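Tokenised fold entry reproduced for everyone:
>
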Amino acid sequence: MEDTRIIRSATPEDFDRWAPLWEGYNRFYERVAPAEVTHVTWRRFFDAYEPMHALVAERDGALIGLAHYLFHRNTAMLGPTCYLQDLFTAPAARGAGVGRALIEAVYERARVAGSTRVYWMTQETNHAARVLYDAVAERSGFIQYRRQL
């Protein structure tokens, strides 16, 4: 059977189909995104002055995955660095290559933008995702520190 999956940039009309994936992503990380944050985030994807972008995976008219990424400067390189901030696949679509396809699409968009690095973080306990990540990237060896202000 032919795979009818499409990886594409999100469009403003995708909001109602994107929102359940966004909610699933937030639920997975045991966080709640207030409605205002969700709506501002969504608007940023379509603001030419924002460095934030959204991709979606679509199959048979349903959105089955998302990837959000942004570009930023780096003191160690001339071109922009690409941070893959959010990646989520609908539970029913997992194991079918959707996450890998979204990551590869981010890689391609980063190349086009002149970036030579894409990076992301995940929880140590996210074992299923880490199997994929170990196959498509290398671990940096860095540890994240943060402090809420």
